């Protein structure tokens, strides 16, 4: 019997044994790969169609995002209202999103309604018509959102730092202006849709309490479509990096503004590089969580900001290291000075055991939380598959978190946390 007078042994998160729940792979007749995680106790599921139809592939700015958004806004058989009503009738939610390389349709629903919803999802992929009036509404709304966003210093800073780091013509760095939305033509959208959705590369992910006939239903509705495997890249599309020559910029967006958006960024190798996983640990320690050095110094000690974080930008082709915060206008320069001071400390002094253990525990604890549920598990698998990474990468990342040394982190800091490598932007 459990003796409740004796406190249980405290176990550090870093000592937990973590495994990635399994993922089943199926292949439809047309070569489309389907990855499934069948777990969970609720009668729900998620199906996620990923197309290689991000802005990486567009010839005209803003076309990829417009095409993705307007997928739900009409087919030859249904209006936008009919489509939305159909999914709402079954208590389902169909969302769409567009990223740099990929775009997605994601269905959340009760598993008993899957067979009524899949035919309409297939209809959107094969028969979207992009009505002119829907495109006009999209343009108007996009321009209004842009006009509002441009008044915010954090929005302006966010898109400019990407342009500095990767180049304004690169998919990771380009941004849209009002005239770009005006220039969108329905013919461009239809051509993009035909190339990258109807006949595009696709991979499907499904998770939750899956119906027994799910693969048969996916085969029925998607297995005979002229889609291609996501691994079948007929033409390799490349975009050269064109980073800005000027490293420091100071922009007044609102002369009366009292807040400054600060972005400091540098190139960093992508996840296929041997430094990437150790870099994640160094980044977490530096500014990756609430107990990080940047937060402790600039928020807790100096009081310059409500929050400050650093990130490794996880793009598929290129990566970067970004420090981001909003601070008072009068302390913006002092904030930047303290960011560089923390870089210097990491370069010159090895981190002590207590701080390194706290960082390890935070990272392992975050991974434990990320594996809580089928949707989170399929998200982990999706990240591996879309980045063409084996399952061993996940286990190696745990090994790196547990074993990276203070000396290795100091060497990384000396290699990558050099102020002259960083772009520095202040927008007020």
What's the short story on this structure?
The protein is α+β, with helices and mostly antiparallel strands. The chain has helices spanning 63-70, 80-89, 114-127, 132-149, 153-166, 178-182, 186-198, 214-222, 276-288, 293-301, 332-348, 353-370, 374-386, 392-403, 406-416, and strands at 24-27, 33-38, 44-51, 93-98, 103-110, 201-208, 228-229, 248-251, 259-268, 305-313, 319-328, 423-427. The chain has 15 helices and 12 strands.
Protein model, in words:
It comes from Paraflavitalea soli. Pfam families: Peptidase_M16_C. InterPro entries: Metalloenz_LuxS/M16, MPP/UQCRC_Complex, Peptidase_M16_C. GO terms for molecular function: metal ion binding. This is Insulinase family protein. By secondary structure, the protein is α+β, with helices and mostly antiparallel strands. The chain folds into 2 domains: 21-229, Cytochrome Bc1 Complex, Chain A, domain 1, CATH 3.30.830; 248-427, 2-Layer Sandwich (Cytochrome Bc1 Complex, Chain A, domain 1). The protein contains 15 helices and 12 strands. The protein has helices at residues 63-70, 80-89, 114-127, 132-149, 153-166, 178-182, 186-198, 214-222, 276-288, 293-301, 332-348, 353-370, 374-386, 392-403, 406-416, and strands at 24-27, 33-38, 44-51, 93-98, 103-110, 201-208, 228-229, 248-251, 259-268, 305-313, 319-328, 423-427. Strands 1, 2, 3, 4, 5, 6 and 7 form a 7-stranded mixed sheet that branches. A 5-stranded mixed sheet has the order 8-12-9-11-10, with helices on both faces. Helix 3 runs parallel beside helix 8 (214-222), helix 9 (276-288) packs across helix 15 (406-416) and helix 10 (293-301) packs antiparallel against helix 11. 36% of the residues are buried.
């Amino acid at each position: 019997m459990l003796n409740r007078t004796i406190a249980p042994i405290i176990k550090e998160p870093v000592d937990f044994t973590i495994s990635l729940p399994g993922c089943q792979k199926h292949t439809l007749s047309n070569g489309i790969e389907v990855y499934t995680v069948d777990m969970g106790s609720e009668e729900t599921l998620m199906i996620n169609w990923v197309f290689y139809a991000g802005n990486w592939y567009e010839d005209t700015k803003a076309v990829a995002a417009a095409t993705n958004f307007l997928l739900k806004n009409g087919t030859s058989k249904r209006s936008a209202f009919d489509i939305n009503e159909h999914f709402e009738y079954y208590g389902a939610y169909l969302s769409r999103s567009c990223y740099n390389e990929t775009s997605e349709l994601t269905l959340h629903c009760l598993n008993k309604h899957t067979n009524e919803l899949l035919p309409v999802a297939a209809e959107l992929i094969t028969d979207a018509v992009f009505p002119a009036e829907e495109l006009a509404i999209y343009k108007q709304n996009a321009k209004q959102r842009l006009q509002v966003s441009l008044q915010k210093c954090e929005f302006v800073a966010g898109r400019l730092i990407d342009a500095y780091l990767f180049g304004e013509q690169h998919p990771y760095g380009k941004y849209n202006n009002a005239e770009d939305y005006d220039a969108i033509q329905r013919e461009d959208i239809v051509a993009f849709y035909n190339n990258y959705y109807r006949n595009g590369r696709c991979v499907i992910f499904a998770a939750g309490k899956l119906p027994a006939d799910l693969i048969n239903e996916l085969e029925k509705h998607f297995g005979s479509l002229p889609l291609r495997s996501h691994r079948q890249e007929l033409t390799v599309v490349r975009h050269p990096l064109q980073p800005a020559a000027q490293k420091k910029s100071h922009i007044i967006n609102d002369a009366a503004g009292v807040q400054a958006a600060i972005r400091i960024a540098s190139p960093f190798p992508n996840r296929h590089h041997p430094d990437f996983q150790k870099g994640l640990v160094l980044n977490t320690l530096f500014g990756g969580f609430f107990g990080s050095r940047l937060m402790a110094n600039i928020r807790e000690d100096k009081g310059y900001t409500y929050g400050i974080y650093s990130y490794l930008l996880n793009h598929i082709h290129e990566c970067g290291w970004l420090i981001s915060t909003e601070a008072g206008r009068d302390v913006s320069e002092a904030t930047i000075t303290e960011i560089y001071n923390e870089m210097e400390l990491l370069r010159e002094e090895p981190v002590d055991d207590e701080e390194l253990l706290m960082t390890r525990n935070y990272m392992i604890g975050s991974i434990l939380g990320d594996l809580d549920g089928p949707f989170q598990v399929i998200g982990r698998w999706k990240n591996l598959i879309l980045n063409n990474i084996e399952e061993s990468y996940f286990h190696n990342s745990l090994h790196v978190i547990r074993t990276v040394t203070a000396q290795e982190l100091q060497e990384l800091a000396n290699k990558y946390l050099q102020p002259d490598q960083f772009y520095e932007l202040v927008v007020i």
